[in-house]
Amino acid sequence: MGTAVVPHPCMASPVRPDGLRIGAGLMLDIRPMVAADSEALQAHVRGLSMRSRHNRYLGGVNELARAEVERLLGGAGGTVFPLVAELVECGRRTMVGEAVYAIDRSAGTVEFALSVRDDWQGRGIGAALLGAIAVRAGKAGAGLLHGETLRGNDAMLALAAKVGAVEARHRDDPRLVRIERRLAAASAALAA
Ligand SMILES: CC(C)(COP(=O)(O)OP(=O)(O)OC[C@H]1O[C@@H](n2cnc3c(N)ncnc32)[C@H](O)[C@@H]1OP(=O)(O)O)[C@@H](O)C(=O)NCCC(=O)NCCS
Q1: Domain of 91: which CATH number?
Q2: Which entry of 68, 88, 116, 147 is 20 to 30 Å from 101 by CA?
Q3: pTM for this predicted structure
Q4: For a substitution probing ligand 1, which of 86, 121, 123, 125 has the most ligand atoms within 8 Å of its CB?
């Protein structure tokens, strides 16, 4: 009788081809967030340091309101898209970042916001999330990617500069800085 071949758990961890290798045996996978991620999303938000939560949500938030989670994960009429960044190790996935982008079809723009778990900051995950959003925004035909951040959020401002975004004055709130990055060749996709 032959011996059954049991796959090693590390061989059963499919990651997209654009996955980022982030350490020995660790891959980062960025994928659309789905309804089943709602608990992990809340745990991620609760697990952020007070400072990171303040920077992400521009104020005092402990966790997301249920209505906000439903809006994010319910499709919001096809204009709001949440992404999750997960570390994949031997088939085990751990959420280490999240991002949301919103498409304004009439303006041809995409707005973003994101956060990375504190103990995983500074390892390229924010840049990978922003890159993933830029690719998706470009595919949607947007000509401009933009976000807003608190004036003192040096990490976000440095990340923005690194990906070629520029700072602009925020029209409504002097505490905030608007971040803008032009995207190559907006197509007619948004108008479709
Ligand atoms: C802002 C944030 C998303 C950056 O994510 P990250 O994974 O730490 O960033 P990365 O490791 O990809 O850094 C990319 C670049 O940004 C810059 N950067 C990131 N953190 C920095 C810091 N604390 N100080 C200075 N520069 C920093 C660096 O240029 C870095 O590139 P390098 O490592 O090659 O020098 C993360 O700090 C975070 O989640 N903060 C709390 C939430 C928040 O502020 N969200 C933004 C408002 S929407």
Answers
A1: 3.40.630.30
A2: 88
A3: 0.89
A4: 121
